[in-house]
Amino acid sequence: MKPRVSVQDSALRNGNFSLRIDPVRSEDAGLYEAQVAYNMKVHSCQVELGVITVTLSPPSPVVENEPLSLSCNSSHRANLVETCWFHNGRLVPTSGTFCSLHGALSILRPAMSDSGSWHCQLRYSDNEIISATYNLQILGFDGPTNPVVYAAAGSAAE
């Protein structure tokens, strides 16, 4: 996993033997065990790392009015019960241009206003709730609705 993992040597003297993984990948999910030998004793602890991923299909860049899908998947082992999607902090109703199925959200005709923070929340049969955020950027024309722009002679037009 090098060079994505590190242990702070200076923290070891204070009893902190934390492992840092940056960036985390899907394949990093699983059980981790730390063992420290101190005063002729071996101390150990186990930590399970769960990973959640949000993927975009087709991959970036997304063009306005071309259908897209955001998928939310987790390494959690229980059965998925519910998926909720939020856009800029507001719950997205799955009707009209938004369709949700098995953790994926389809946007049939994405607009510039669909850019921003998309948050998926997964609820499992053991009542575990896991969430992640994806920053969606959509390419398109973000100008006046009227395609005619007037500029004074001698001035700049944009």
What characteristics describe this protein?
single chain; 158 residues; mainly beta; 4-stranded antiparallel β-sheet; 1 helix; 3% helix; cell membrane; adaptive immunity
- Terminal CA distance reads 49 Å
Question: Helical element count?
Answer: 1
Biggest sheet architecture: 4 strands, antiparallel
Shape: elongated
| Helix content bin | under 10%
Task: Describe the strand arrangement of the main beta sheet, using strand numbers.
Answer: 5-7-11-10
Task: Explain this structure.
One of its GO terms (cellular component) is external side of plasma membrane. GO terms for molecular function: MHC class II protein binding; protein tyrosine kinase binding. The termini are far apart. The strands form 5 sheets. Strands 5-7-11-10 form a 4-stranded antiparallel β-sheet, with no helix packed on it. It has a 4-stranded antiparallel β-sheet with strand order 9-8-12-13, with no helix packed on it. It has a two-stranded antiparallel sheet with strand order 1-2. The longest helix is centred in the first third of the chain and has 4 residues. It is built from 1 helix and 14 strands, in the order βαβββββββββββββ. The mean pLDDT is 88. β8 and β9 form a beta hairpin. With 158 residues, it is an all-beta fold.
